[in-house]
Specification:
The protein is mainly α and 359 residues long. Helices cover 77% and strands 0% of the residues. The protein has helices at residues 4-17, 26-31, 41-63, 70-93, 97-121, 128-146, 149-164, 180-194, 197-216, 222-244, 250-268, 282-303, 306-326, 331-358. It is flat and about 80 Å long. The two termini are 29 Å apart.
Length: 359
């Protein structure tokens, strides 16, 4: 898919040929549109090579660990970590942001490995959860120091490992608050500020998981999940607004939050409503779910957002399957329900088309 600036350039050439735009304004118009940063093949290979290099270094040191004196081991860890940090600073000073980002990411991995290896050197019995949290905090510190999206992603991963180590994260009201409640919104902020697609996807999923943790701490009632669905929908609307303001990768949050809203609404239909026992939303819930999925699909097409469109299609398929299950595969009743849904979709489409024509 061509970039936005490329599409505008093609449109300008067509408009200039049709006499709609003056040719001397072409350069000025294109100059107002910033270049879209894309990861080319060389950059992707550099990232893969950098991460594999860091893993190779860690594996090599670990393979020769027992044959190396303790002080040499500790000095090797410190020297390797400092060399990577200094190399990142040098690359940043030389205006090579990709190299700086890769080196800081590898430094975060080396620091995480060094925590466990240092404990082995001095026979220190450590807590695995604390080690994971320490590696995550250090990675976020490196990310903040060098604007490294890779290090921030490493930090988010280790915080998640700490939350899941020796603990059931969704164990109810007695469970401890996960550190992800802080790491997820921080990662989302950094993803938007630094324009990182990978960090945006990871932080969006982490935020959805935080919503799930909140739901697990409460009673399993439909009202809680319905509230979470509304809150997630509001966040999707906010991300959609940021996307309209050309905020880099806000569309990633728009798509995942729309998925989260549909997910929590779907779960709400299978939980007790208003304190009733073993009572779900039933067919009425499935119809509303189907309509909401259709709305998400239409919104995705309207915004030309592939992820939102795909989520709407996927949710429609699941809603249809759920509705057929509730109807007991009664084909006549299913035909009537889908006829009503089809009529509603056609009427809504005609109203939107009429409104567009009037505008």
């Amino acid at each position: 898919m061509p970039a936005y600036k490329d599409r505008v350039q093609q449109d300008l050439d067509r408009w200039i040929g049709a006499g709609l735009v003056d040719g001397d304004k072409r350069a000025a118009i294109l100059a107002t549109i910033p270049e879209t940063r894309r990861m080319d093949a060389a950059t992707a290979l550099a990232w893969v090579g950098g991460v594999l290099l860091g893993i190779a270094i860690i594996a090599f040191v670990a393979a020769n660990w027992e044959a190396t004196p303790k002080l040499v081991r500790f000095a090797t860890l410190i020297a390797g970590f400092l060399a990577l940090c200094c190399g990142s600073a040098w690359a940043y000073h030389k205006d090579r942001p990709t190299l700086s980002n890769i080196l800081l990411t590898v430094a975060a991995l080396v620091f995480a490995a060094s925590i466990g290896l240092t404990g082995q050197i001095f026979d220190i019995a450590g807590n695995p959860r604390s080690a994971a949290y320490g590696a995550g905090v250090a990675a976020f510190a490196l990310a903040a120091a060098g604007r490294s999206t890779g290090a921030a992603l490493v930090g988010l991963i280790f915080i998640a490992l700490g939350d899941f180590t020796d603990r059931s994260w969704l164990s109810g009201v007695d469970s401890e608050a996960p550190w992800m409640l802080i790491a997820a919104p921080l990662s989302a902020y950094l993803a938007l500020r630094w324009g990182s697609a990978a960090l945006a996807h990871a932080s969006a999923l982490a935020i959805i998981y935080c919503f799930g943790w909140f739901a697990a701490k409460t009673e399993a009632e439909a009202g809680v999940f319905l509230f979470l669905a509304i809150a997630m929908g509001a966040m999707a609307a906010g991300a959609r607004w940021l996307r309209a303001q050309d905020r880099a990768f806000a569309g990633v949050f728009y798509g995942w939050f729309a998925a989260g809203a549909l997910l929590f609404f779907a779960v709400a239909g299978y939980l007790p409503w208003f304190g009733a026992e073993n009572a779900g939303g039933g067919i009425a819930h499935r119809i509303v779910w189907l309509a909401a999925s259709g709305g998400v699909l239409a919104l995705g097409r309207y915004d030309r957002h592939g992820l939102v469109t795909a989520i709407g299609v996927f949710s429609i398929i699941i809603a249809i399957c759920a509705l057929l299950t509730d109807l007991g595969l009664d084909l006549l009743a299913a035909a009537g329900i889908f006829l009503l849904c089809a009529a509603a979709a056609l009427i809504a489409g005609l109203m939107l088309r009429k409104r567009k024509s009037a505008a």
